[in-house]
Structures are given as C-alpha cells and as structure tokens.
Amino acid sequence: ETGVTQTPRHLVMGMTNKKSLKCEQHLGHNAMYWYKQSAKKPLELMFVYNFKEQTENNSVPSRFSPECPNSSHLFLHLHTLQPEDSALYLCASSQGNRANSPLHFGNGTRLTVT
Amino acid sequence: AQTVTQSQPEMSVQEAETVTLSCTYDTSESDYYLFWYKQPPSRQMILVIRQEAYKQQNATENRFSVNFQKAAKSFSLKISDSQLGDAAMYFCAYRSAMNYGQNFVFGPGTRLSVLP
Known about the structure:
heterodimer; A: mainly beta; seven-stranded mixed sheet; four-stranded antiparallel sheet; B: mainly beta; globular
C-alpha cells in the first residue's frame, strides 16, 4: 500500500545534526500523526494534526519539531537528538472527524542517533 | 483514561492451525471502536479488523475473526488456517466514539510466530 509514504526509510545522525523526516498521504485524510516506536515499549503518540492544526503534543521534547504545511504533508524536524531518541518513527493518517476511521500507517523511518 | 492490555508478549502457532490473541481494555465509555493491527518485519502497520462496540455481531475478515465480549471488555483475535505470512507483531487498539478528537490507545503488542 502506498497511501502513506515516509522518507527516508533509514537515517543515521549525530547528536549535533539537524535532519527532517517527511510523510505524505494520498488518501484524502484530514488528520496526520507522528508515533514513536521503541523496542519493548508501547507505541507512543507524539503529535496530531487535524486540518493542519496541531491538536496534540504529548509532552514531546522541543528537539522534535513538527510541521504540517497542508493536510497531505507532515514533517518532523530533528535537532540535537539524544541516543535514546533512536527508534522507529511512524507516520499515520485518518479521517480525523470520523471516530471509526482507522489509522493508515507509512513504513516508518528507522532513526539511529550516534 | 483508557488502557489496552495484551497479556501475551509472544505466541506461536503451527502452520494451518488456529491461534487466538487476547486483548482486554479498560474504559467507562459505552461507545467506542476496537481495532487489530498487524506489523510484519516490513514495519508497516496494517489494519486487520475493526469492531464497533454497538454491534453485537463479531467482525470477520476472511481468516481473521474477533470474539468481542463487551461486558468483559475483551476483544480477542482468532486467526484460522495460519500461514507463514501471518508472522508479525499484532497490536490491539481502542478509540472513543464519543470524545471527539480522542486518539487511539494501543496495547503493547503480541509477537506471533508461525511454525512450518
């Protein structure tokens, strides 16, 4: 399924680098999400955007900065990350105003912070 | 706040056999939706099946079916005629139908191995 596309697939960065993760959805959805998936931990919701407006910021450190220029694109800007930020970052979309609308996920970006 | 529990970190099943993955949840709401997601090694989370809490009939999608027990707050997933491609992490998820903007609550997952 190519409904939600994430790039890059893998990313290795040093703690002083600045990088961005990109997500694009072609499903006509109006809500987009960033999740963090770490080994042996439940899926952690980071940010939610509904109709381009941020509606959720789950106490995420400021070194993660989201951007949603339109309802089809979502970015996660990264700077001065820590090794514990290494994880799989998943983007998802849904029809935010319909509770029965499931999440559609991308393939994720595997981030390694060295 | 709602919580979702999956008490089986790992399960295994013989190819062509049937396996049941358990999921329980805690909520005070009466109207909500439940989902099962599959995450194979390719990493993409894929929706397997969805259940509306107001429906008594258990959802079915081909070899996948659920046993939804609303009073017990239980939502187990049954996989029949297991195939090698079913090997994956399986996540149970909850979403409120009444609290607009309520986000998904995921369980910790169950890793399913399928033995040839």
